Amino acid sequence: MDYQPLLEQIAADVAPLVGGGTPAEYIPALASVDPGQFGMAVADLDGNVYGVGDWQVPFSAQSITKVFALALALAEGGDSLWERVGREPSGNPFNSLVQLEYENGVPRNPFINAGALVVTDRLQTLTGDASSELLEFLREESGNPELGFDAEVAASEQSHGDRNAALAHFMASYGNIDNPVPTLLDHYFWQCSIEMSCADLARAARFLARHGLRADGSRLLTRSEAKQVNAVMLTCGTYDAAGEFAYRVGLPGKSGVGGGIVAVVPGVCTLAVWSPGLDPHGNSVAGVAALDRFTTLTGLSVF
Known about the structure:
Number of helices: 14
Low-confidence stretches: none
Mean pLDDT: 95
Largest sheet: 5 strands, antiparallel
Order of helices and strands: HHEEEHHHHEHHHEHHHHEEEH
Oligomer: single chain
Helix content: 40-55%
Strand order of the largest sheet: 2-1-8-7-6
Distance between the termini: 21 Å
Number of strands: 8
């Protein structure tokens, strides 16, 4: 299928929404990003990539990287990960401490900050260098060897990372963190600072549409594990607005406060969209609308 005319129609449809919302103000390096940008890309299973707007402009992937870290942790260490992090929506803000106390230091899911810290901790134990392993994986799957960390964003995260430090120390007190907290935080902040374009993200996520197969044809995840990742994306991937996202879009998706969203149509294609203006839940205003239009116009959905 040639997705180009469809993407151009979607870009025109959502143009009035571009610039709406507010960039992530609590991370200074993100607050200064021009909110009037919009890009969208689709990657099919044959490796073709279609794009519109600012689809080749790198941006801070932020929490979208949690999907790839989860996949690597499952690939390297198997299902034992689920003993340390749950698979349920949290119903609370992504950086909440309250739920952890009620639930003895076990985060609800791998996409809230506490859960992502557990995943990064597990990946650090398995690989010895979680952030570098993740970056190398993303370079290989995206086909872009120039992908890298943004030092300014990482420093910005570090200087405003007290809540993440509190989450990590709290879980460590329950024995749910193996590595020294400063080491874990360092890898987590570098992980969140990775810059990718819509084209990079759409390509890199194709293994989730290919039931666990990597770009080179080797198997990263079993079909069951790929299903698990997609399921958790659907129910937990857009902060505490996952129900609204499932209702409007009907696809597994993961957003980041950099304004990006990656989504998966299993067996068909992957999508990535970026526009920095966020709604109150931390999801891109124009990005969600664009994905809504995509599933409405194509009928492609998991429902």
